[in-house]
Amino acid sequence: MSEPIISMKNVDYAYENKAVLSNINFEIPQGAFMGLVGPNGGGKTTLIKLILGILKPDHGEISLFNEPIGKFRAWNHIGFVSQKSNSFNKGFPATVFEVVSMGLTAKVGYLKFFTKKHKAEILKAIDQVGMGEYAYQNIGNLSGGQQQRVFIARSLVNDPKLLILDEPTVGVDNENVQRFYDLLHQLNQERNITLLLVTHDTGIMTEHATDIVCLNKTLYFHGDPKEYSSLTDRDLSRFYGHPVNLVTHDH
Ligand code: ADP
Does domain 4-89+161-240 have CATH number 3.10.20.30? Predict the structure, then answer.
């Protein structure tokens, strides 16, 4: 079994007095493509904030790359793409190259000139997400799906080992959702980047994910897509708290 990249033990979290996560235990092994699903308000974003160190658990332990989160410093190993990333307005005055270069500012610092090597790294990341021909176009003129690819490129310049994506395909049309998942699959397989993806696209996710976690205050399920697909509508309705039809893609 490979090393866990993220490990949570007995984690509880409450906002003020409202318990949101209770007794969460799970590990994400290196190289996994984990899909995190659950109803709205189930605590998915809170869980991500705990992993990113934005919130601190009330109880329990979180480790990243085998280090307690309080001691963890290698934040450049973790890339984050949120659903709000793809909201640049038309005409926003930054090119794809400039947006991706922002990913390097942690390493290089603001207002410093990029070296040739940095420029090459930026262009390589843009190529890797299939956006090479758009490198000097304004980000605001691109579609939601294309913008999301650019935000992945912005993470890739830091050579992340873990990429966390919070509903990255909200507002992206169907055809581009498929292409977006193909890109994630490629990053996972070819660059061995561990992925944690919060999503409502349960059908398409079961085609790509290696692990699925269902969260609704507690962890209801953790298994592989096959086991997940074998859950009945009744199991899922109990978990979601309302009737659910599991939509799967026939391929
Ligand atoms: P999800 O991402 O699964 O929709 P969230 O983690 O956003 O779930 O929210 C879990 C619960 O915590 C919800 O009931 C939400 O209203 C509540 N919540 C989220 N953020 C805050 C906050 N900053 N203060 C108080 N309650 C919050």
Answer: no
